[in-house]
Design brief:
Blueprint (H helix, E strand, L loop, with lengths): L1 H39 L18 E7 L4 H17 L2 E6 L4 H6 L7 E6 L2 E7 L4 H8 L2
Parallel strand pairs: 1-2
Antiparallel strand pairs: 1-3, 3-4
Length: 140
């Protein structure tokens, strides 16, 4: 019995150590994303050709998504409503088809939204966002 308790404590130590490492990694990523998004504010969008050319004037949104991502599927009605009601320009980028474009824009996860005004980045939102968050970011 004494040996069984020692084994249990040893396994519990390993489990909590792995959980601690995992949570530390997640916290580090959130801090890194926050730092990266603050650094990109006010700078021009890295790509302003092709579909991005229409974001040179006015307010717009670059929406990075993956077709298999459940939060991305939940964001679709919000994006459609913003296009219809607020008349903002939206460029949708499928990260499965264009991973190099996502990397160039600094996107590490989906869904991610880059809010743009006259070709310059206003704000970057990593993860799903509400309609209110996007409207507030674009000052609509």
């Amino acid at each position: 019995m004494d040996t069984a308790i020692k084994v249990f404590y040893y396994i519990a130590k390993i489990f909590f150590f792995i959980a601690f490492l995992y949570l530390s990694f997640i916290v580090f990523l959130r801090i890194y994303w926050g730092f990266k998004s603050k650094r990109m504010k006010g700078k021009p969008l890295p790509v302003l050709d092709g579909d991005f050319a229409r974001l040179k004037k006015g307010k717009g949104l670059v929406y990075f998504y993956s077709p298999t991502c459940q939060p991305c599927k939940a964001m679709e009605p919000i994006i459609r409503k913003l296009v219809r009601d607020a008349k903002i320009k939206v460029v949708r980028i499928n990260t499965n088809e264009k991973p190099e474009l996502a990397r160039k824009c600094g996107v590490l996860a989906t869904p991610s939204e880059i809010l743009v005004e006259d070709g310059k980045i206003i704000e970057i939102i990593f993860g799903p966002a509400t309609e209110g968050d996007i409207r507030k970011g674009l000052r609509l």
